[in-house]
């Protein structure tokens, strides 16, 4: 599944290239609790079609009612009876704020005390949108600046991800390419993990030189490769929007791939295995590959968070949750780490949960 921001931009560009009127809404400020973070975007077409989200749905409904003809043929709203023509405005961007009063917060489904402000851009230039999408498809991190006076857009390459910035002159939002996941191993656990990664907006690549595993792969949308994993890591060029997860349990495949991944900017590098297997992996790397505890500090294992998982799909949920937490900059409590949780519960080696897939 495509990254949500890219999906919004691509759909909006399609509408505009076809000559249809549309607007782009961006969350620029929030106060208190908010359903969507600053920088979230949504596109609205003149016929009422919506892609993306800026709230739980009520604000989207209000924007449709105010700026499109979608509801005109149905029961008229209060605005319609007052003579509103429901045509999308033209001209420079405008700000709109929701949830200023308690009544408005309740009306628009905002949490208690929640307020958010949107910037609405009317009829964004399709050529500029196309250039942005092409850059994102090429894996570039892009900065999009919008002049508030006239809606003019400037695109530039960004060195690092950045938060949305808005002042009296312009709004600047940074758009990154898709997050990427490289899985070493095409077994059952990899299929569950790949499925969840795809619907979380990751582009997934699976590497397994073993034909017996690749031949039964059943997850559409993932790229499947047969080269040796360490070569694939080098060609993959993991960056700060990439994660590498080794799942084969075979040191010949996992170890070299993980070592190569540790030399990159990947935000997450981890290998499957029990506590004992992970300790053995670290010992091998130190003894045979001149690693140190410091150079292996970023290597995660046992991977996942402790949820008492005992089956491959549950283990995949555990691993995906940890990857998303790291991606989102969330520090998980120590007692949620698998190794610490297992030690605290004094799990014995013959515990069934410790044997499934050799994960725990």
From TrEMBL:
Q: What is this protein called?
A: Xanthine dehydrogenase accessory factor
| Segments forming domain XdhC Rossmann | 181-323
Q: Which residues cross the membrane?
A: none
What are the residue boundaries of the XdhC- CoxI domain, all occurrences included?
15-70
**Highest taxon of the source?**
Bacteria
Q: Which InterPro entries match?
A: MoCofactor_Util/Proc, XdhC_CoxI, XdhC_Rossmann_dom
């Amino acid at each position: 599944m495509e990254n949500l921001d890219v999906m919004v931009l691509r759909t909006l560009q399609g509408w505009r290239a076809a000559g249809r009127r549309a607007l782009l809404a961006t969350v620029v400020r929030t106060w208190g609790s908010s359903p969507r973070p600053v920088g979230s975007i949504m596109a609205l077409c003149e016929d009422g079609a919506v892609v993306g989200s800026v709230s739980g749905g009520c604000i989207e409904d209000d924007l449709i009612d105010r700026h499109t003809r979608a509801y005109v043929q149905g029961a008229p709203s209060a605005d319609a009876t007052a003579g509103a023509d429901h045509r999308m405005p033209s001209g420079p961007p405008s700000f709109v704020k929701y949830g200023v009063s308690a009544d408005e917060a309740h009306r628009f489904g905002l949490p208690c005390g929640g307020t958010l402000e949107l910037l609405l851009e009317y009829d964004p230039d399709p050529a500029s949108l196309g250039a942005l999408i092409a850059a994102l498809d090429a894996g570039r991190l892009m900065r999009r600046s919008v002049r508030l006076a006239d809606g003019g857009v400037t695109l530039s390459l960004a060195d690092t991800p950045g938060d949305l910035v808005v002042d009296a002159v312009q709004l600047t939002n940074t758009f990154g390419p898709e997050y990427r996941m490289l899985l070493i191993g095409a077994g059952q656990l990899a299929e569950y993990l790949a499925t969840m990664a795809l619907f979380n907006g990751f582009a997934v690549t699976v590497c397994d030189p073993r034909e017996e595993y690749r031949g039964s792969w059943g997850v559409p949308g993932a790229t499947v490769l047969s080269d040796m994993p360490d070569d694939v890591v080098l060609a993959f060029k993991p960056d700060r929007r990439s994660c590498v997860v080794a799942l084969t349990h075979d040191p010949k495949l996992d170890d070299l791939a993980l070592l190569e991944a540790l030399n990159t900017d990947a935000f997450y590098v981890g290998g499957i295995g029990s506590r004992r297997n992970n300790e053995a992996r670290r010992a091998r790397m130190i003894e045979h590959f001149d690693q140190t505890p410091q150079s292996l500090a970023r290597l995660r294992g046992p991977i996942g968070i402790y949820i008492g998982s005992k089956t491959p799909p549950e283990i995949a949920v555990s691993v995906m949750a940890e990857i998303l937490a790291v991606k989102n900059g969330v520090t998980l409590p120590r007692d949620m780490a698998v190794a610490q949780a297992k030690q605290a519960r004094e799990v014995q080696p013959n515990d069934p949960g410790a044997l499934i897939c050799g994960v725990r």
